[in-house]
Each structure stands twice: as structure tokens, then as C-alpha cells.
Please model this.
Amino acid sequence: LNIIGNMEKPEQPDAMNRTSSGFLLLSLVLMIIFIIAVLMPVEPSDFWTYLRIGQEILTTHHIPTVEFMTYTRAGQPAVFSYWLASIGLLWIYKTGGLLLTALVTGAVVSGMYVFLWLCLRRFGVRPGIAGVLLLITALAGSNNWSTRPQIFAYPLFGLVLWILVRWQQKDNRLLWLLPIAAVLWVNLHGSFLLFFLMLSTALVFGAGNRKRLGVILLVSMAASFINPFGLGIWTNTWKMVGNIAIKEFSFEWFPPANKGWQMNLFFASLLITPVLVAFAPRKPHRLLWVWFMGFGWMALSSTRYVIWFTIIEALVLGGMVESLLAGFAFKKPMFTNKVLNLTLGICLLCLSLLFLPGIRGRWWKQAPPALTDTTPVQAVEWLKAHPELPGPQWSNWVASIYMTYALPERKVWITNRVEDFPEEQLLDNKKLMRAEFDWQAILDRYGVNLLLLDQKYDAALLGAVAGSASWQQVYENTQSMIFTRTGK
Amino acid sequence: VTERDSSLPEIPAAPKNRTHSGFLVFSFVLMLLLSIAALLPIYPNDFFPYLRIGDQIVKTGAIPTTEFMTYTRFGQPATYLYWFPSLIFLGLYKLGGATLIGVVCALCIASFYTFLWHSLRELNIKPLTCGFVLLITAVIGINYWAVRPQIFTYPLFGAALWVIMRWQNRNNRALWVLPLLALLWANLHASFIILFFLLIPALIFGKGDRKPLITATIAAFLATFINRYGWLIWTNMLSMVNNQSIRQFSVEWKPMANDGWQANIFFITLLLIPILTSLLKEKIPWLYWIWFLGFGWMALTAGRYGVWFLGIEVFLLAMLVQPLYNRFVKRGDRFQNKTMNLTLGVTLLIIPILLLPGIRGLWWTQSPPIYNDTTPIKAAEWLNQNPQLPGEVWTDFVFSTYLTYALPERRLFVTNRFEDIPPEQFIDNKHIADADFGWETILEKYQINLLMPSLKMQPDLVKAAGASPNWKEMYRDDQAVIFIHLLPVD
Model:
């Protein structure tokens, strides 16, 4: 059997390299990925809070140790482990606004897929097949591209995978990069656990030089302690993974269901894999199967892990599809003019920049907005101009998150840091969202005097408040309404 | 490598027949499955409304053509495709109560797995492998064993598979059964299209004699028209599958998610199948992969289709596990005493009988209840004794399904027949159940004067009604509370 991932000398079709047709195909796919990534409006959910945290760190010159954005949990101990990502996101936003934010998002997302491309090419997958696989993989994972700390981990994941694939093929030259990746990852996002998951499984099941990888794993482990929390980063991450409230109230932690085209692609790939295995002449190496099982289980347990699995799945499928199509598709080199290929490839990549927010509006009248329709920009501006209105205020989860940065003067009811809040408050939040019978009593309990409601997403509570003598409307636009207490 | 079912190593048939060790393994597996089936309580959701429909058919001498169990949709046109299982359930229930229902349902499950066993044996799968994969898939599928019309179709599905397996092995003698199965299936449950999902891929990708199978398939197709609704049964079935209320509000129509231990095993098998496939030297024929893709997609799209997929997955798992078994387990017949095997096998099959509802209570003081704990027996009795309480009643969804039969004098808000109820009413139902803002206004809209929420499912509504000056608590037990409106709506 020709085992994928165990080839000492990967096939690199000379014709492809000579003509740079691979670059052209990669550019085409990257252009699509980049355009999709930058066309997606910034989801407030996991963005604005980090800007605020970054702001707090820069203002106070230290990482906060207590909750400081809400009136419900202010002063309670809290761990802000994504401190580097917060500072990074703030710097990007302050430097180049939403344009630079989108550019960086597109770049880091594309970065991961570039590494996947390199892995596939190491497996001897031809550019045409690699391109199609890359595109399908990217589309299946596109639900996870929103701007948030996690995206900084994507290129690191790709890089680690690429280094391990090279190591698997007896090329140890880039192993030294792994501890650096570990330091970066551990300071950027809690998903650094994946780094050690990949390395330790490679050490046990891989085909490369185990001694070297073992040393690198130990060094990386030591490197993971280089962070403001030291060893505590590990315990804190474990706590977060096991947090009941997160699992119960955060949608992205729910197991995925076969709904929507992205999930359709993900589940279809699960069904297609064994069929391809059955008929492909080349079978994946056992290391890939171990990753397939591990990442597959994670993806099936929680939607947020799907993106990691899609990358592993592409590696599993890559060599098999290549061997199945060896005699049929992409037999002849398609684009043979090197200069044209290079020029066209660069043009495609440049073309994708036209879709950035701030640029696309100049040539595209009905361009998608840079922010989601859940971001209450105008209402918050109005609130900013009316500091005399008495708080505390309640707004839905998404609006609260936006306000953490846009209106730091007012403490909010809740943030995206689900782990900071007791289950009771999260339940109360749900009840308020659908205006349960005792909505007024809940608001009274928290002493809420100001309401910022979304006309579309808070329709139930809006109906209740509008019909109540205890509240009066003080502001309205097409998206939001603001109410204050009447004292009745 | 050639594609053939017999690609898996042949097993010597003679020792198996001599010792009946296969029967012993089969009996053991069946004993486990039947014990579980017998111990499962009856869930009201998909059982009592059918008793009521059966009752209505018997009383009126005709299959109803309009909705008759609710006050919200009373008199609206409705199709009762499941008239036949409704009559069967009613007859069994009247004849032998929950015990006979339990016996018949256990027999349906037993025959399903018996057919699967024989189908696997047609593939030359060894008894221990058969037993292992059947147990795995059965354990995943326990949730599908509830007492409901669908259960009658399991043996039909199993029989169809068995017939196709024989046909794959060039044995066409049982093909005549297929039209009969189609006839029965079309009259029992809307899932009769599944038969054709088995037959059409077999026609294209199977390796048996296509001509007789084509004839049998056409005859089976024509046989589906022999029913109360004629060819309209196909359009009714399709309109049910696409019904918005069912899609939006019926939990079993929602896509499967990896939640709960059965789903965990289901998804683990999905991850394991490619790995096991990579270890297999022989090729599994296309037919099984096509079924795997088709039924797999159905199962991932709606939880209720999982049962069919498991029936297909069992073949793949068996073909994948068998070589591992041959490799790692020493050959040789472990159970060589024929008399002992037969005696032990029969004894094992008797055990589930002792666990049947109505029988287990005779020797097991703390035996599991016959009815699921969501069945409001006492509250329904109280309501029955108080017919003077005015107005319409709103109850928890499961309570409603029980009341359709237990208290036919009172019409209900909804039943399990989602297709009869518009989505807006289900939204209202949810608002009431969650005591959302305006819940009392919604109750007024439907002129509801009686509330019967479940303490477990509608704690907020119980609190809301308890706190409202408009409602007075009249009854409470450990399951349900009954409130009456103080100013009855005219």
C-alpha cells in the first residue's frame, strides 16, 4: 500500500513547478476565501469585548484580575487569558479601523489554508485536486471565520501541521519553529491545547524521528509557561473547556447538527470518507487516522471545533482523491505559461483587496455592511450623548458586547465571557429575551432603569415594555428603541 | 479485487449446524434486546392518539376525514394514513391491555433483529460477529423502540433486507414476498417509501438477477396503491415529509446531534467505519456503500430516520469487524454441546417474557412502571370526575396525547398529529408553555378556562398561573397542576 503521510520523497510534478500553475490555482482559491472572509460583517459577539480588554490593559498597564465591564459581576475574580489577542485586535482596529481588521482576518484565515495547501502538495496531491479540496474545506469551515482571538490560532495550526507533515517525511529542519508557535499560541488563545494534542499523537503514532520531536515537545511544553499566568494558563483553559455554563448557554459549544450548507458539507464528508477509503488505492497513515478520530470527535461534540477537523479531513481525503483520480482528472498541465500564471495569480490576489470594507463601498453600491445588523451603532451614539439617563441599563447580549467598547462609561449587563456569569443570570437573560411573565420582576431585581432594545431581536420584550406604564420610550431608530423608567 | 459478498472468509457450515452454537449466540442477543424492549415504558406521545383514532373508526364505522380530537382544528380536513395500526393498537389494548401491546411490540423488534441476523448470515458473517454488531446497533437504536405505528414496519424492513440478501446470493425464491411487504407497509406507515430506497439501489448496484427483481419492484410499487387512499398515499406521504409544522416543531424530525450516550456511540461508529475500512483488504460491494450514503444522509438530516440507517450500518460493521475477529480471536467452535446450546438458548428466550408489563409486577416489587412518568393518569382521572369545570383545556403536549384517549369528552389544544396544526398555533403553544409575555392573552384568544401544565416541563407556567389573580389552583399531584380561570371566558 502506498501510505499517505509516510512518503519519504513526495511527488512534486516538475511541470507544475516549472509553470507556476499551482500558484495560479492557489491564488484563485485564496481569492475566493479572502473575499468571503472580508465580506462577512464583523460579528460583535467575540470582537468588541476584546478591544475593551485590550484598552484596559493598555490604560492600566496590567492584565485585569477582576471583571470590570458589567455591573452584575464587577469586582469578581476573572482570568483574561486572551490578553495578547486583545491587544492585537485593539492595535489593528486603532491603526486601520474595520478595513485593517478585515484585512488581517482575511490574511490569517487564508494563512491557514496556505499551509493546508503546502501539506497537500507534500502528499503529492496535484494543484487541481488540492485547489478543489481546499475550496470545499474552506467553505465547510467558513462559519468559524468571524473576527475573534481564535483566528490568530488558525495560521499557527496550519504551520504546526505543515511542520509535522514534513517531520513525518523525515524532514526535521523546521522543528525549531514549534516552540515559538507554542509561545505565541498559548498567549493568543485557549486552543493551544491542540498544539500539544497534535505533537503528542505524532510522537506516538508518527513515522518521523521521535527523539527530536520528543525534545521539541518538551521544549514547547516549557515554552507554554511563558505567559502572564504561568502554569495557571493550563488549569484555566481546562476549566473553561469543562465550564457547564458555557456548554449550556453558548451556541458554538453545542454539538453540530446537519443544518445549513456548511454543516451539510461537514456531515457529507463524514459519509463520503469511508467510501473513498474503500476504493482509493492509497490509504492514509495511522497518524492521520488518529487525528481524524480525535478531531472528529471534538467536531461532533462542539460546533466550534469543526474548523480544525475540516483541515484534518482534507489531509485524510487529499491523497485518496489524488490516487483515485490519478488516471482521470488533471492529467495534462493546464496552464503552461509561467509569466502569465504568475501575473494572473498576483492580479487575483490584488483583486480580492477590492472587497475590503471601506474600499468595496466605492465601487459597489449595495455592498454588504461592515458591521452586522445586530450592532446598535446609532442608538449607542445617542446614549453616549445622554449620560444623564440613569442606569443600570439592560440590552441584549450582542448589544452589550458592542457597548463594552463603544460606551465604556456605562457598565453593561452581560458580556461574551460566559464563564464570568452565574447560571442564574444567564437564565434570567434568556427569560428577559423572550419576555417571560416575570420580566419586570427580573429587571427590578437587578435595578435596571434603562433599556436598549433591538426591534427585530428583542421583539417580545419590546412588546411587553411598550405596553407597560412603568417604561417610557426616549429614543427610536429603525433598529433600536431606548426606554427609561417612568417611576410608576 | 472482485466485488462479491462472499469475499469475506468462508466459515465452515457443518459445525455450526451440528452444535447450534449460532442459535445460542442469537438467543443471548435476542434475550438482551427483548428484555430492554419489555422494560421500556409506554410513551404517550405516539400511542394514545392512535387508540383514540382506532376507537373513532370502530364507533363510526369509517376512517375520519376531519380533525376530531382538538377544539382548535375541529372539523378541518385531515388524513388518517395510520388507520390500520390504530385499529391494531386498539384491538390489542382492548384484548390484552399493556401486556399484549408489550408482547406484540417486542415481537416486532425481535423479528426485525431476527431478519437482520439471517441477512448477516447470508453474508457468511460468523455468529459472534453478528451478535456483536447487532448489539451495538440495537443499543444505539433503543430510542426507536417506542410503541407507535412505525414499530410494525421494522419487521418489514428486516424482511426486505433479508430477501435482497438472498437475491444477492442468486436465490430469488423469496422475491414474491416484496409486493406483500409493500402492501402491508403502505397500509401501516408512511415510511413505505423506504422499501424502494432499498430496492432501487439493489437493482442498479446489486449483483443478483435483475429481471425478477425488476418485476418484484414493479409489483411492489403497484401494491402500494392497494390502500384506503389509493395512489394519493404517495402525495400524502410527501406532503407529510414536507410539512412545516412537523419540520419546525417535532423533535424527532430535527437533525441528529452528538448528545446523549446513544448518539455518542452512533457518531463513534461513523468515525470508526473509515478507519476499519482502511484496514480491510477485501472490497465491500457498492450496494452497501450506496445504502450507507443514502440512509446515512437521511439519518443525519432527521433523527427519526436513524433506525433505518442502523439496519444498514449493521452490514458494514459486520463486514469490517469480521476480518478483525478472524485475526485476533482464535478459531474453533466454543459451544459444542448441542443439547446444552438448544436448552440454554430456549431458556434465554423465556427470560424477556418474565419482564413484560403486567407480568414483571408479579415477582418484582420495584419493577419499572408500565407507562412513562409523563403520563398524567391521576390528573386525567380527576379531570374526568369533574366534568362541570367549564371551557377548553390547555395541557402540556404529552399530556394532550394521553388525554386524547383517556378523556375523549374534552377536546384538546394540540395532538401529536403536527400536520393538522398550523405553525402559528405551535408558536402560541410554546408561548403558553414558557409563560412568555402575553400568555394570558393567548389563552383568552383560544377561550381556554382550564390549564394543566406539567410540573417538570412548564415550571414557569405553573409559577405564572400561581401568581396570577386570574387563575386558581384546583388540583396538584407530583406530575401535574390544574388551574381554573376565575372569570370563565364565554
Observations:
- The interface with chain B takes residues 254-259, 267-268, 270-275, 277-279, 283-284, 289, 292-293, 296-297, 300-301, 316, 431, 434-439, 460-461, 463-464 of chain A (CB under 8 Å).
- Strands of chain A lie at 2-4, 282-284, 393-395, 450-454, 471-476, 480-485.
- The first strand of chain A starts at residue 2 and ends at 4.
